[in-house]
Amino acid sequence: MNRILEPEVMDTWLEATAYDAMDFTAVNTAFATEAISLDPHAVKVLDIGTGTARIPILMCQQRPQYLFTAIDLAQSMLIIGQRNVEAAQLTQRIRLERVDSKRMPYPDLEFDMVISNSLVHHLPEPYLLFQEIKRLIKLDGAILIRDLIRPENDRVVNELGAKFGSNYDPQQQQLFQDSLKAALTLVEVRELIDRVGLTQVKLSQTSELHWTIERQKNIIDRI
Predict the structure, then answer these.
(1) 98 has which bridge partners?
(2) What is the pLDDT of residues 110-130, one digit of tens each?
(3) 160 near 7, Cβ under 8 Å?
(4) Running DSSP on this structure, what letter comes out for residue 120?
(5) How many Å apart are CA 199 and CA 25, to the nearest integer?
(6) Which of 112, 119, 135, 209 stands the most exposed, by the fewest C-beta atoms within 10 Å?
(7) Are 104 and 71 within 8 A, CB to CB?
(8) Judging by beta carbons within 10 Å of its beta carbon (0-12, 13-18, 19+), is residue 100 exposed, middle or buried?
(9) Is the distance from CB of 143 to CB of 133 less than 8 angstroms?
């Protein structure tokens, strides 16, 4: 199956509220736990494509020193995210900003950890995101990037939609299937890593639906 791009920015109020209403609790908790394990002592953390800020909230609730810059291009997502941050009483530690992930206004080597969950499939040119991650992460910094894997054909898309989206309403089901079709394959992700020259990272398929790139802090020093 060829990649079928979806809109880069989910910025209607209907899309944002539908997304925030989808139950990603287990997936987000697993992501947050893994990210923390890669550097529990980090301070400056960048979340690229934060959506409604659920993952930064989970991580800050477990690690009191984390200071997040959490970015997204969708203003509607950020509005809901700000409400979520305020409800969690974390406004002093999570700063939400409307920023394009392909051109981020932060200094080189600025962050101890860079994370991104389910953003890559939205981007027509994900190479630009990977290039920015390499620029912004400290040389020994932790990285965790996760996204969907594109299935081989429409039949598999439908099967995965039925298996994992059975509790979704029709709009949420459509969002999920469109995301699968817009995702990358493992081969395509590996090509991006090699092209950018992102070093000492591990790429693997970590579920029936997802690929993951990870790098633990100080791994460069230990090799």
Answers:
(1) 72
(2) 999 999 999 999 999 999 999
(3) no
(4) G
(5) 31
(6) 135
(7) yes
(8) middle
(9) yes
CA–CA separation, 104 and 134 (whole Å): 12
CA-based angle 104:39:88, to the nearest 5? 70
- For residue 116, CA distances in Å to 14, 43, 48, 129, 176 come to 23, 17, 5, 10, 18
Q: What is the pLDDT of residues 198-221, one digit of tens each?
A: 999 999 999 999 999 999 997 444
Cα 195 to Cα 184: distance, rounded to the nearest angstrom: 15
How far apart (Å, rounded) are the C-alpha atoms in residues 43 and 119?
23
What does the block give as tokens for 158?
């439908």
Q: Which helix (H) or strand (E) holds 62?
A: helix 54-62
Dist CA 47 CA 50 (whole Å): 6
Strand order in 137-148's β-sheet? Answer: 94-98, 67-72, 44-48, 111-117, 137-148, 210-215, 202-205
**What single-letter amino acid sits at 69?**
T
Q: CA-CA distance, 172 to 149, in Å (whole number)?
A: 18
In this prediction the pTM is 0.91
* 181 has pLDDT over 80: yes
For 6-88, strand residue ranges (E) read 44-48, 67-72
CA distance to 32, 94, 160, 195, per residue, from 80 (Å) = 19, 14, 28, 36
